[in-house]
Amino acid sequence: MSRTRNTRASRLATAGVAATTAALLAAALSPAAHADARPTRATAIANAAQALVRHAAALGLTATEGTSVRDVIVDKNGTQHVRYDRTYRELPVLGGDFVVHLKADGTYRSADRATRSRISLASIAPDVSAPKAADLAVNALRAANLGHALKQVQARPQLVVDALHGTPKLAWRTNAVGKDSLGNPVARTVLTDARTGAQIDAWDSIETATGDGKSLYGGTVPLETTQSGSTYNLTDPTRGNTYTGDAANKTDLCIFGICISRAPSTVFTDADNHWGTGATSDRSSAAVDAQYGTNETWDYYKNVHGRNGIAGDGKGSYNRVHYGNSYNNAFWDDSCFCMTYGDGDGTTFGPLVALDVAGHEMTHGVTSKTAALTYSGESGGLNEATSDILGTLVEWYANNPSDPGDYLIGEKIVRSGFGKAALRFMDQPSKDGSSADYWSSSVGNLDVHYSSGVANHFAYLLAEGSGAKTINGVSYNSPTYNGSTVTGIGRDKLGAIWYRALTVYMTSSTNYAGARTATLNAAKDLYGNGSTEYNAVAAAWSAVNVN
Q1: Whole-model pTM?
Q2: How far apart are CA 37 and CA 25, in angstroms?
């Protein structure tokens, strides 16, 4: 999934920032900014701009660097948190992101930085050419899909500064994409040293979950639709005009948001506003599940966390179902701001439109708009775990008797050929045969779907506690690394703590130690330092060996 954003960097050079800062400071110092009312987004940005000027050295900002606002959070008590991306000589900086925390009166409190390395490059002219970087990325994509013939392989390099992997260096970030023998997409992002051609890192760039209407999994569910003449279309005007369309079993071929070909998303229509039959033979049944999953995810974030839409801007995304041929996958794509579902092969997976899958994948969209956790190493595991944790809480929030809440991931979509009852198990992640129950120094070397086990296990322990128990008819037995007994504080508090940690404290480079700090800070903000909740967070992390 492409994470490139076309934002306009605001120069921090003295001449460039003077006029902008003057206007921002005028707004920040206006009477409205000092009123008792909760600060607005614009006021928070103005206050943060003042902080950037006054604390540039502490934030590692120099005249060669620029910043752009990615996200803003204003707490009920007026505390403000402004998240920035960074450029160096107009090149994106991987690991350059940071969050400025402001007091209710707009003064600087502190900051969280993804990395603290000073950026100083002798030149931004690469020794390795763009075509060479593209070739290296294509070879990496083929190697990652060993044994599978690929076609229509393309690659697009982008010159960046890599501050995530030690001393900042010039690098090529290349998205290599193609199609497998069935025509389904494969994609890999490859980070290459622009001086030596050595591979720095690589990760899959399609984030996966693998893996009134009558739905496939949720029974009969309510739907908000739009009437057009004598027909209805599956567009929800109450949730940002989110809609669901038919991909007609076609696929995309896109590189950094530029699509050579794009599968359709023909909006589903119906004559009587009663959608689907609950059977896979009716193509609109999967659409019912997809639209329902979007609705519940939207409502969860809005009603529980106060977030208005995936990007927090009130705008709806869209869904595509029946993507590819027997495609065992579902994914969120920033480039189209859309959610895409395959039909599964029928043996390993059924259609991947289950509620927790929808919540999982759309949470990748929330993560990309907030912490933007890098999709490799420990931060990649936290990225996947964030989607598992909040996607699971979406399922609990929906309270659907046909798909009751549980701590199993993807239990509705697996078939007998998969050999397990679910994709992942939060109470004891190792039950899937690959995931880690506890942190170790090698966790970051695992596939991100397996390194996520540490945070999934933490989340279960924080909500429900350790030991054997039955919840909603499902038996769990959660062990601890240190033999401790952990007492849970409930799902609502887990969600509140994790969401605040994600949106306020985590950055692109956050690892498990950083996640412990971020969630403790979140618990302190919400419930107080030394509170039962704060201590429970500490105990749950220790129980998964994150100390």
Answers
A1: 0.78
A2: 18
- Planar angle of CA 55, 56, 60, nearest 5 degrees: 120
| CA 321 vs CA 51, 183, 368, 491: distances in Å | 46, 16, 22, 30
CA 268, CA 284: separation in Å to the nearest integer? Answer: 7
Which residue, chain included where needed, has tokens 């971020």? 518
Beta bridge partners of 474: 471
3-class SS of residue 161: strand
H-helix or E-strand spanning residue 380? helix 377-398
pLDDT at 143: 85
Residues 6+ apart with CB under 8 A from 99: 81, 82, 83, 84, 111, 112, 504, 505, 507
- 395 catalytic residue (yes or no): no
pLDDT of 7: 32
Residue 127: the pLDDT is: 95
Alpha-carbon gap, residue 357 to 363, rounded angstroms: 10
The DSSP H or E segment spanning 196 is none
The CA-atom distances, in angstroms, between 42 and each of 29, 46, 56, 67, 124 are: 12, 6, 20, 16, 34
In terms of residues, how long is the chain?
547
Find tokens 């240190």 and name the residue. Answer: 482
What would the pLDDT profile of 288-301 be if each residue is shown by its tens digit?
Answer: 999 999 999 999 99
Q: Which residues, in sequence order, are bridge partners of residue 88?
A: 65, 91
| Largest interatomic CA distance in the chain | 67
In angstroms, the first-to-last Cα distance of the chain is: 32
Under 8 Å between Cβ of 446 and 382: no
Q: Exactly one of 322, 360, 449, 457 is catalytic; name it.
A: 449
Question: Helix/strand/coil (H, E, C) string of 414-471?
Answer: ECHHHCCCCCEECCCHHHHCCCCCCCCCCHHHCCHHHHCHHHHHHHHHHHHCCEEEEE
**Structure tokens that stand for 361 in this block:** 């994948």
CA distances from 105 to 52, 98, 300, 321, 489 (A): 16, 21, 30, 48, 32
DSSP letter for 312, please.
S
pLDDT tens digits, one per residue of 352-386:
999 999 999 999 999 999 999 999 999 999 999 99
DSSP 349: B
Distance between CA atoms of residues 338 and 291, nearest Å:
12
Catalytic option among 361, 384, 395, 533: 361
d(C-alpha 118, C-alpha 110), whole Å: 19
Which parts of the chain sit beneath pLDDT 70? 1-36, 146-148, 181-184, 206-211, 254-259
What is the pLDDT, as a whole number, of residue 145? 76
The reply to whether 449 belongs to the active site is yes
Q: What are phi and psi of 532, to 5 degrees?
A: -55, -40
C-alpha 133/C-alpha 128 separation (Å) is 7
The secondary structure of 357-377 as a DSSP string is HHHHHHHHHHHHHTT---SSH
